[in-house]
Amino acid sequence: MEEIAVTESAPAALPPPPGADRHPSLDFADTAATLPAGQSYDLLADPGSAMKWLAAHALTAPDVRLYEVCAHRMRTLRGHVRALFAARVDGATPPEGSLRAVNEALTSVPTAPLLAWDEDRGPRRVLAHPTDRAVNHALATLAADAADLLTGPDADLLAACGSAPCDRFLLRTHGRRHWCSTRCGDRARAARAYARRSGTSE
Predict the structure, then answer these.
(1) Quick count: other Cβ atoms within 10 Å of Cβ 95?
(2) d(CA 75, CA 69)
């Protein structure tokens, strides 16, 4: 699977979860994760890492420069996508704000030049700023994929990683198995083995 670049100060990121090859929104939701021993990482923590993630997923050109406002927009949408995924996994009603945010991302890409007013030339049609267009396109693509995942045949396979404290999402691939990585699967099996030896519940 594809390795994802991380910032130097962040712990090593886990590999993409099962299903990320079919749904980039799944990998997007998992760009932030809680790891054992209180560690965590955020692949969208700053504009540089956010730009690398977008480029690695072919969602923008490698030379597009992002600003903090762009990275913040990505992190905000990620939080809403995670809330919708969590609601689907838990069988709960999703937050209205998260539904609204995903729908806004879906409809934010202009299909035609916008109308603007120039003091010297009067009304004219203009394209959105190139960086805005790139980020809007990326967020719209991720929002559309999240909507497709939540409403399509893979929705019943959506699960949260079963190895606490990991909080990543994945698509189940084998029966009831729901670990996002080999590392988390090994930890879950080790915890069960320890519980059996010690006579405690898992």
Answers:
(1) 15
(2) 10
Give pTM, 2 decimals. 0.80
Contacts of 189 (CB under 8 A, 6+ apart): none
Of 63, 96, 148, 166, nearest in space to 158 by CA: 148
Distance of CA 90 to the CA centre of its chain: 18
Joined together, the tokens standing for residue 52 give 């690398």
User: What is the Cα–Cα distance from 156 to 52, expressed in whole angstroms?
Assistant: 31
Q: Give the distance, in angstroms, between the CA of residue 157 and the centroid of all CA atoms in the same chain.
A: 17
Establish if 151 belongs to a structural domain: yes
Q: How many domains does the chain have?
A: 1
Nearest to 90 by CA among 24, 146, 22, 158: 158
The verdict on residue 78 lying in a domain is yes
Torsion sign across C-alpha atoms 20, 23, 24, 29? negative
More confident of the two residues 23 and 60? 23
Tell me, what's the pLDDT at 5? 38
Residues spanned by the domain of 63? 24-196
- Domain assignment present for residue 9? The answer is no
The β-bridge partners of 32 are 42
Evaluate whether residue 73 is within a structural domain: yes
Rounded Cα distance between 197 and 191, Å, is 10
Q: Mind spelling out the 3-state secondary structure of 96-146? A: HHHHHHHHHHHCCCCCCCEEEEECCCEEEEECCCHHHHHHHHHHHHHHHHH
- The tokens for 161 are 């990683």
CATH of residue 103's domain is: 1.10.3300.10
